[in-house]
Amino acid sequence: MKVLALDSSGLVASVAVVEDGNLLAEYTVNYKKTHSQTLLPMLDEIGKMIELELETVDAIAVAGGPGSFTGLRIGSATAKGLGLALQKPLVHVPTVEGLAYNLWGAKGVVCPLMDARRNQVYTGLYAFEEGKLVVLEDQMAVDVAVVAEKLNALGREVIFLGDGVPVYGEQLKALLKVPYEFAPAHLNKQRAGAIGALALEYVRQGRTETAAEHRPEYLRMAQAERERMARESAAGQERMARESVAGQERMAQQAEAEETHG
Predict the structure, then answer these.
(1) Which of 16, 208, 219, 222 has the fewest CB atoms inside 10 Å of its own CB, making it the most exposed?
(2) Where are the domains of the chain?
(3) CATH-assigned architecture of domain 2-97+190-204
(4) Cβ neighbours of residue 41 closer than 8 Å, sequence gap 6 or more
């Protein structure tokens, strides 16, 4: 079983090819360029280096969210395009689960943190039991204080990773009452190798989908969508206020007319 894996859900762009228990290649970049500029050239470079014939790939795995709205769309569109062209199934790997899989075999609780802005993170709580990833709390978008509260309630040692650590690490230190660690640099960001390895498990469980079926999982609305709804809500409230004032004026005019003709 050979899986091509893509992850452009966050700041990192990553492409990998995993075959059975072997990571054949991985290309990961955490730099300024947008993923639309990097993802396909990275795939092309990997293909040249390992003489990959895309037709030999059995499935295409993609970090399906949550994460950056633009990044998720780029990864999703790339995976869907490849799936349709090659007629291969897709494997939707939840981003936060893939991130947690970087720390396979870790003791205690694994807590990935992706910066979701507005003092929120995309996160989930995981553990490894008998060599398998166990979901303690499914992926969610929550306030950092909620994460600390959940971890304190579990009462177990925890290890953090993800791009949310530099942003919220100090805040978590002040809130946590349990022992904690932060993952080292080579394990603390998204890696397509982890997405591919976890995807192999999903394929064995029959958790695949067609390219047409695949949809990213955003967990919350995009900023532009929230702003649009806020504008519509404000406009609706303003309209109701105008209608209320107009109604009161009509009632006053009617009362005045009745008094005049009474």
Answers:
(1) 222
(2) 2-97+190-204, 103-182, 224-257
(3) 2-Layer Sandwich (3.30)
(4) none
**Nearest-angstrom CA–CA distance, 66 and 9:** 7
Alpha helices in the chain (DSSP H): 35-49, 69-86, 95-101, 144-154, 165-175, 192-204, 223-261
Q: Which amino acid, 191?
A: R
Residue 177 to residue 224: CA distance in whole angstroms: 37
Provide the token pair at 78.
């790339």
**pLDDT confidence of residue 153:** 97
The pTM score is 0.84
Mean pLDDT, the chain cut into blocks of 10 residues (262 residues total): 97 97 96 91 97 97 96 97 97 98 96 95 97 96 97 98 97 98 96 98 96 92 44 57 66 67 60
Q: What is residue 254's predicted lDDT score, i.e. its pLDDT?
A: 75
Domain 103-182 CATH (choose: 1.10.287.130, 3.40.50.2300, 3.30.420.40, 3.20.20.150): 3.30.420.40
Q: Rounded to whole angstroms, how far apart are CA atoms 122 and 137? A: 12
Q: Angle CA(135)–CA(60)–CA(72) in degrees, nearest 5?
A: 70
d(CA 235, CA 191): 44
* Helix, strand, coil percentages, rounded to 5, for the chain: 45, 25, 30
